[in-house]
Amino acid sequence: MHAAAAKGAIDNAGRSAKLLPYRNFLRIRGKEQVGVKQAVGKRAAKGGAEKVPPVGRRERNKREKLDRILASARDLFAAKGFSDTTTQEIAERADIGTGTLFLYAKTKEDLLIMVFKDEMIETSQTAFRKVSPEAPLVDQLMQVFGAMVTYHSRDLPLARALIREITILANPDRREDVRSLMRIIYSGIGDIIAGSRSREKIRAGIDLALAGEALFGIYYIGLIGWLNGQITKQAFLKRLRAKLALSVEGLRVAPAEPATPARRTRNRKS
Q1: What is d(CA 70, CA 76) in angstroms, rounded to the nearest whole number?
Q2: Helical H segments across the chain, by residue range
Q3: Domain 107-249, CATH
Q4: Please, how many CA atoms are within 13 Å of residue 144, restricted to the half-sphere of its CB?
Q5: I need a labelling partner for 5 at 20 to 30 A (CA). Which of 15, 97, 139, 173 fits?
Q6: Does residue 7 surpass a pLDDT of 60?
Q7: Domain chopping of the chain, boundaries
Q8: Closest-CA residue to 66 (of 33, 19, 116)
């Protein structure tokens, strides 16, 4: 009995080691765990008696299964393509039953959005951190959107499938996944605008989140055109810069117009 338990522990350890690189993508769950550890540390430092209960075995098992599912889906989508990957293959690779898989995601399209959300959050946050704060506002925006374009360029068929799914969601359960991603992107763009306000002479009182949504919308429409083959990547990026420059101009304080000199009226001689 002890030998079987030891073998199970070794198998689980080996599986966890294989999945470790993929868990780096799951930033939200990782941040939650870090937040719990930090909270425990602060309470211990204050000598408080309150303790945060440890995560139970059932919750750990659920998280580990979800990690395996997303890692397996990501690998298979990259290796075989989205269309040729089946949920049965994802379940087998994750070492779970198909019925268990459907407890976490109802369809293969759900899995695609779940994988994308984690990766795009990481891509967006990295782009926001790396942006050059002293660069012109349009250049900063192009750095962020350029990182997103690079992400989609890695696998164009997968990017096309993804955009189809998130543009018109088939499963309402995935709405919050998309909303959470959009909130991060809109807020990040708003922060860039706020940081450039004095240098770029941006008008006071602008709704920064709304401005971020508007600028992202310009990018997203162009992205769809590029993925649909209506425009080349080079032309897409060139037109995107021009549109962003036009939009940023609209955010600026209007220059004071010179006063029009009064016209003199000549008295007619009678």
Answers
A1: 10
A2: 2-23, 27-46, 57-80, 87-94, 98-104, 108-130, 137-153, 156-167, 175-195, 197-200, 208-227, 233-251
A3: 1.10.357.10
A4: 30
A5: 97
A6: no
A7: 59-104, 107-249
A8: 19
Q: Which CATH architecture has domain 59-104?
A: Orthogonal Bundle (1.10)
Residues in contact with 45: Cβ distance below 8 Å, sequence separation at least 6, in sequence order: none
Q: Which residues contact 100 (CB under 8 A, 6 or more apart)?
A: 65, 91
Say whether 205 sits in a helix, a strand or coil.
coil
Q: At 191, list the tokens.
A: 């922060």
- CA 156 to chain centroid, in Å, comes to 17
pLDDT-derived band at 90, boundaries 50, 70, 90: very high
Specify which of 117-121, 217-221, 254-258 reaches the highest per-range mean pLDDT. 217-221
Q: Report the distance separating Cα 63 and Cα 74, nearest Å.
A: 16
The share of the chain scoring above pLDDT 90, in percent, equals: 50
Determine contact, residues 73/115, Cβ cutoff 8 Å: yes
Rounded distance, CA 251 to CA 246, Å? Answer: 9
Residues 6+ apart with CB under 8 A from 156: 227
Fold match, 59-104 / 107-249: no
The owner of tokens 């971020």 is 212
pLDDT tens per residue, range 100-145: 999 988 888 889 998 898 889 999 999 999 999 999 999 999 999 9
- Cα 10 to the chain's mean position, in Å? 35
